[in-house]
Amino acid sequence: MSIKRYGKSSSALLNQKTSFFAENEKHLKNQRRIAEIYVKQPKRTNCKNCNKELGTVTDLVKDGVDYIVCDYCEHLNGIYEDTSDFCNAMYTNDSGEEYAANYQSADVDSYNYRTSSIYLPKANFLYTSLQSNKLKPNNLEYLDFGAGSGYFVAALKKAGLQNVNGTEVSEHQVNFGNAMIGENVLRTHNIEDTNKTIRESTAQVISMIGVLEHVQKPREVLEEIKKNDHIKYLYISVPTFSLSVYLEQLSPDVFHRQLHGGHTHLYTEKSLQHLSKEFGFEIMAEWWFGADAVDLFRHVAVTLEKTNASTKLQNKWKKDFIPIIDAVQIEIDKKHYSSEVHMLFKKI
Ligand SMILES: [Zn+2]
Description:
By secondary structure, the chain is α/β, with parallel strands linked by helices. The protein is built from 14 helices and 12 strands.
C-alpha cells in the first residue's frame, strides 16, 4: 500500500520567500519578459506528459500565453515548445541573477538553515518511505539529478545516507555547493548529456527535486530511467495545476509563482498516474503540500500595498491570516489540490 502524507508548516516558506513580497515588480517584469520569449517559440502540438495530440480549444490565457488541459491525461500545457533558445534565455538571465544573489547572501550558516528547514523534510520522507518498504536506505546509492547548489544532496547526507552524489549543469552552483558541503559530492554535466547522464548512472535511487518540469524532454528522461537496470526508484517533486493557478488569474499584477516562466506545463494527479503507468512505475509514496495559502496571503498583501491601503490594514491582514495559513492549506493538500507533490516511484 502506498504511503500518503499531507501538509507542511509554511513558516520556513514565509521566511525564505520574502523577496516575492518585497520585490514584486522585479519578479513581475521578469515573468513578462519570459512570456514574451515563450510566445515566439514554435507551437507545442502534443502533450508534454503523455504525448497525445493536444486539443485546439484554449482553456486559459495569461501574459499572452494560451494554455490547454490535455483531454487524455489532464496535464496543463502551455501551447509553445520550450526550445533550447527559450531555456537559454530563461536560465542564463533569470537564474543567473538569482544564483548571484544566493551566492552573495549565503554563508555556511544560511546554507545549512535552508538545507534543514526546506530540504531535510524531503530527504526524511524519502528515507522513511524506503524503510517502510523494507529497504535499508543506507545500502542504496543515490543520484540527485539537477542538484542545483546541492541542498537536497546535503539533506540526504544529513539524514545519514553516505552514497550520495549530485549532478548539475551550472558549474557555478556545483562549485558553490561543494564548498558549502565541504566535499566534492556535486559534479557538472553538459545539458546535451542529460539522457546520457541518466543512462550511465549506477545509482538505485534517482531524485529530481523541482527538475522534471524543467527538462526539455521529460519523456526521454523517463525512458532512460526505465531502461537503466541499476535504477529502481525515482523520487520527484513537481509543481501542479493547483488553486494557485486560479489565484494568479485574479491578480495579473502580482508575481505568479506557479504558472509562469520555466513552468510551461503543470502536473495533475491524473497526469502523474498516467506517467507512472506508461513508464512502468508504481507509486510507493506521495506527499502533497503546497504554497497556495501562502500565495493567497501574498496576493492580498501585495494588492493592499499597491492600492495604498493603510499600514494599519496591511498589518491587520498579516495578523489575521498568517496564523491560519497552515489550516487553510491542509484542506487543499488532503484533496490532492496543492501546488506541489513529492512522489516516490518504484519500477515494476
Ligand atoms: Zn496528456
